[in-house]
Write a structure and sequence with these properties.
heterodimer, A: 351 residues, mainly alpha, ABC transporter involved in vitamin B12 uptake, BtuC, two-stranded antiparallel sheet, 14 helices, 67% helix, 6% strand, globular, B: 256 residues, alpha/beta, Rossmann fold, 2 domains, six-stranded mixed β-sheet, four-stranded antiparallel β-sheet, 11 helices, 41% helix, 23% strand
């Protein structure tokens, strides 16, 4: 545990250093992509817990990310003015759940407060994950992969085909999420550093909670399920319940990332729900070494940052597909645990 | 009163009747052995008792409670622990961690308290570690505590699996072929260990092919053949039981 505490301390230090360096060399615009990377890292961390530790694959996590993002996007942009006389809107208004603002074109918009949007996105993601998880988590291996893939495709087609979700355009003009007076999640230039630190804080907190969890009774049970589910069950672990809980937890983390990033970006589009996004998350978890918080964190920050800065160009998705294939073939333990000499030997050794 | 008793157990897989109207009981504080040729239904019976299979009909009563058809984790929490014919240890976890998992049903920390490392959770964690260490000491393998369990020698893995089961503090321990793959010396040690386990107050129900081990340690032996119980008696009586000899040696040899 002490080792983990030190690593978390170093992580904080590194995150501050990155800010100081980018600011001092006048590259603050990097912070925008870094902040986005941090949110995607959250999704990866949740998946590390689900896949790496509990051994349950999900090829549908972009779906949960999208549920989070779209829920808060729609709730905080949908104009309720035309319904202002309806009972629901009146009650919501009385309860202080609504805000009135002007959009870019000077139009009056009455919509739900982002607090409500974010909260509901977590509740909805948890509910969906729970309902999907009960039947789906009875499956194992390839079957579970296919079922979660199916879920991801359904979410993608729904957001792509439903007018309220903006179809192919997605939802834009999502207002800032004011957490405290003077502190909001938004993409405005003067809030860039603050937002970088908000995202950093979230990642550090999630890393802290996860390292505690893994080295606990629950963490042992999850790893046991991964290793030998029947033996875990005979040792008294309610494997169905544990799998469901960790699935819901990772879905909620993905939804949280989706909701925050949507407010940060000021919108969300259907590509966030696409299957390729889910594959990307899985590829990153694999590159990080599956059951490794720190590997997942490092790879998520690195690969997402490079991708967002456009280093992979037109081949962005292809790069992540290739990463997945190469990792599976040559470094199933993850990139950080590769022993180069052994790897070369393996490549040239005929099986 | 019997610790474990079963009445009229039937189990079939498709057209194959794996168990036919099997009834038996295990008295507390005894070692009972279950023997029979391959495919007699021994492991099926263990799987029914530990909840991996649900009988087509019949009743299993453990410690005054009907348990047939309950999920394995529930049955484990009532006090039945088991080992597997093919050793099932958790890869990537140390010996100590494997044994710590045995204390799962005796602890309570959930997701939230574990993530926050509340004081209660930390105390519990310390308790689990000490208890598990105690079990390792009792088995004489405390020096293996930090080794990865699945990388140990085969015989040691068997011991670790039993240690994990004992950490559950069971009333009944089901051992599925504990001597399989062990050499003569290790088998003898296994016999001593099983004796010690019974001495410590745990009732043992064991499936085993090694006849000398079975005859040496058990108080009672039950014989299954093609899913039917053909004998249930003291070891010496079983050795003389004609039906049993027929099943094991074949009709002709039995006459000689």
């Amino acid at each position: 545990m002490k080792g983990e505490r030190i690593k978390i301390g170093l992580l904080c230090l590194l995150l501050v250093l990155i800010d100081l360096i980018t600011t001092s060399v006048a590259r603050t615009y990097y912070l925008t992509q870094l902040t986005m990377s941090l949110y995607y890292t959250l999704v990866v961390l949740g998946l590390v817990l689900l896949m790496g530790y509990a051994g349950q694959i999900s090829l549908g996590h972009a779906g949960f990310f999208a549920i989070g993002g779209y829920t808060t996007a729609v709730l905080s942009t949908y104009n309720l003015l035309k319904y202002k006389d309806s009972a629901v809107v009146k009650v919501s208004s009385e309860l202080g759940l609504l805000t009135l603002r002007e959009n870019l074109y000077g139009e009056q918009i009455l919509s739900f407060h982002p607090w409500i949007g974010v909260l509901l996105s977590l509740v909805i993601a948890a509910t969906v994950a729970y309902l999907i998880g009960i039947p789906v988590l009875k499956l194992k291996g390839h079957y579970l992969a296919m079922a979660t893939l199916g879920f991801g495709i359904i979410v993608y087609r729904i957001v792509l085909g439903t007018p309220i979700f903006g179809e192919a355009d997605g939802v834009s003009d999502v207002p800032p999420f004011v957490i405290l007076p003077g502190l909001s999640i938004s993409g405005q230039m003067d809030e860039r550093r603050a937002n970088y630190y908000i995202a950093s804080l979230l990642v550090v907190v999630v890393v802290y909670l996860m390292t505690n969890l893994i080295n606990s009774r629950v963490g042992r049970a999850l790893r046991a399920i991964h290793g030998a589910e029947d033996a875990a069950e005979s040792a008294g672990v309610d494997t169905a319940e544990y799998k469901l809980k960790v699935f819901v937890m990772s879905a909620v983390i993905a939804a949280l990332a989706g909701a925050f990033l949507t407010h940060f970006n000021g919108g969300i589009g259907p590509s966030e729900a696409s299957v390729m996004k889910s594959v990307r998350y899985v590829a990153i978890v694999a590159a990080g070494g599956m059951a490794s918080i720190w590997g997942g964190l490092t790879m998520a920050m690195l690969l997402n940052f490079l991708s967002l800065r456009g280093y992979f160009g037109q081949y962005d998705d292809a790069v992540f597909g290739a990463v997945l294939i190469l990792i599976m073939l040559f470094a199933p333990e993850g990139l950080l645990r590769v022993n180069p000499a052994g790897l070369l030997k393996n490549i040239f050794k005929r099986s | 009163m019997a610790l474990l008793s079963a009445k009229g157990l039937n189990m079939s897989f498709g057209g194959l009747k794996a168990l036919k109207d099997v009834s038996f009981s295990v008295e507390p504080g005894t070692i009972k052995a279950l023997i029979g040729p391959n495919g007699a239904g021994k492991t099926t019976l263990f799987n029914l008792i530990s909840g991996y299979l649900k009988p087509n009909s019949g009743v299993i009563v453990f410690d005054g409670r009907q348990i047939q058809g309950l999920p394995p984790h529930r049955i484990a929490s009532y006090g039945i622990a088991r080992t597997f014919q093919h050793i099932r240890l958790f890869p990537g976890m140390t010996v100590l961690e494997n044994v710590m998992l045995g204390l799962h049903t005796h602890t309570r920390s959930g997701f939230l308290s574990s993530m926050l490392r509340l004081p209660r959770t930390r105390n519990e964690e310390r308790f689990v570690r000490e208890e598990a260490m105690q079990v390792l000491k009792m088995m004489g393998i405390e020096d293996l505590a930090d080794r990865e369990a699945t990388r140990l020698a085969y015989g040691q893995q068997r011991i670790v699996e039993i240690a994990r089961a004992l950490a559950q503090k069971p009333k009944l321990l089901l051992l599925d072929e504990p001597a399989a793959g062990l050499n003569i010396r290790e088998t003898r040690q296994m016999g001593i260990l099983i004796h010690q386990i019974r001495q410590s107050g745990v009732t043992v129900f064991i499936v085993e092919h090694d006849m000398s081990l079975v005859m040496e340690i058990s108080d009672e032996v039950m014989v299954l053949s093609y899913g039917e119980k053909i004998a249930e008696d003291h070891p010496l009586a079983i050795q003389k039981n004609e039906e049993v000899i027929k099943v094991y040696l074949g009709e002709e040899d039995a006459q000689n």
